[in-house]
């Protein structure tokens, strides 16, 4: 895809949703990190239901460690991969308590050392907290980037690097929200809604429908 098309697409998203708002509910850095860790393979609405219940018991890493793996697993069981997520959260809380005085680091390299925190989680966390241009590439962003030919790559890391290169700085902080929402509601993995897509004209998806 050429530069002109990319700019048109970004401006279209800006026109329809200039300032996307994160739907996860949180009061502290720790609550935000936990919410993002839970959001993989789960909807924001489901995560909000779970964290509303969880944050009654939990305000800091030591609270998680006190309730323990078995109770945590029960509380978060309605989100996808809850067993794996519960274990990662427990391990992360141990590190936060031992090395960071129960605070969450706001450095990408340190965040990536936490169990269950990949580049998507770290970048989204830093994007929200620091208000800086970190691009988080999740399943939806990866699919939209590749399918439209906006930024193609065989891994999320490769797509992330290409997006940094081809997306002007003023759009970068909002890209995850735009592509994420578009991937959830229109550019779906099965039966994409090409006919009602706002970027249909410029998308380079080979099998798109314009009816």
UniProtKB/TrEMBL annotation:
<dbReference type="GO" id="GO:0051539">
    <property type="term" value="F:4 iron, 4 sulfur cluster binding"/>
</dbReference>
<keyword id="KW-0378">Hydrolase</keyword>
<keyword id="KW-0234">DNA repair</keyword>
<keyword id="KW-0255">Endonuclease</keyword>
<dbReference type="InterPro" id="IPR003265">
    <property type="entry name" value="HhH-GPD_domain"/>
</dbReference>
<dbReference type="InterPro" id="IPR000445">
    <property type="entry name" value="HhH_motif"/>
</dbReference>
<keyword id="KW-0227">DNA damage</keyword>
<keyword id="KW-0411">Iron-sulfur</keyword>
<protein>
    <submittedName>
        <fullName>Endonuclease III</fullName>
        <ecNumber>4.2.99.18</ecNumber>
    </submittedName>
</protein>
<dbReference type="InterPro" id="IPR011257">
    <property type="entry name" value="DNA_glycosylase"/>
</dbReference>
<dbReference type="InterPro" id="IPR023170">
    <property type="entry name" value="HhH_base_excis_C"/>
</dbReference>
<dbReference type="Pfam" id="PF00633">
    <property type="entry name" value="HHH"/>
</dbReference>
<dbReference type="GO" id="GO:0003677">
    <property type="term" value="F:DNA binding"/>
</dbReference>
<keyword id="KW-0479">Metal-binding</keyword>
<keyword id="KW-0540">Nuclease</keyword>
<dbReference type="GO" id="GO:0140078">
    <property type="term" value="F:class I DNA-(apurinic or apyrimidinic site) endonuclease activity"/>
</dbReference>
<keyword id="KW-0456">Lyase</keyword>
<dbReference type="GO" id="GO:0006285">
    <property type="term" value="P:base-excision repair, AP site formation"/>
</dbReference>
<dbReference type="InterPro" id="IPR004035">
    <property type="entry name" value="Endouclease-III_FeS-bd_BS"/>
</dbReference>
<keyword id="KW-0004">4Fe-4S</keyword>
<keyword id="KW-0408">Iron</keyword>
<dbReference type="InterPro" id="IPR004036">
    <property type="entry name" value="Endonuclease-III-like_CS2"/>
</dbReference>
<comment type="similarity">
    <text>Belongs to the Nth/MutY family.</text>
</comment>
<feature type="domain" description="HhH-GPD">
    <location>
        <begin position="38"/>
        <end position="185"/>
    </location>
</feature>
<dbReference type="GO" id="GO:0046872">
    <property type="term" value="F:metal ion binding"/>
</dbReference>
<dbReference type="Pfam" id="PF00730">
    <property type="entry name" value="HhH-GPD"/>
</dbReference>
<dbReference type="GO" id="GO:0019104">
    <property type="term" value="F:DNA N-glycosylase activity"/>
</dbReference>
<keyword id="KW-0326">Glycosidase</keyword>
